[in-house]
Amino acid sequence: MKKYLASLAIAVVVTPSFASETDGEVLYQQLCSACHVAAPPATVAPPVFAMVDHVKKEFPDQEGFVNRIVSWVDNPQANQALMVGAIDKFGLMPKLGYSSDQVEIIAEYLYEGEFTKPSGHGSGEQGNH
After folding, report:
1. Whole-number Cα distances in Å, 77 to 8, 74, 107
2. d(CA 7, CA 9)
3. 36 touches 45 (CB < 8 A)
4. Whole-number Cα distances in Å, 18 to 6, 12, 21, 28
5. Banded model confidence at residue 39, pLDDT cuts 50, 70, 90
6. Residue 120 has what DSSP assignment?
């Protein structure tokens, strides 16, 4: 019985951290959502729906979308920005030092997810024109 409880305790402790390393939604919540909020007002970075929309317009296939997000997060450069207005409004995204594996998982989640502009918010909230 003690072995079972010890194993159960280890599983409970290990499972959440394992999930956070492989689950795009969890990683997004942990690493991205504080800046890329789901609903305006955006105060630090473009809201997630605006960012996803802009990247999908330029990179409509999943592989291109994921590669773009991974390369951007690894090394944001103003001359490669898709959202020039967002840089004017929020500044250039800092280099965050996240692993490419983590960012790839997040990008896949973002590509597959449904991120839409919340109703009742004007286009000026996106900060991307």
Report:
1. 46, 10, 18
2. 5
3. yes
4. 18, 10, 5, 15
5. confident
6. T
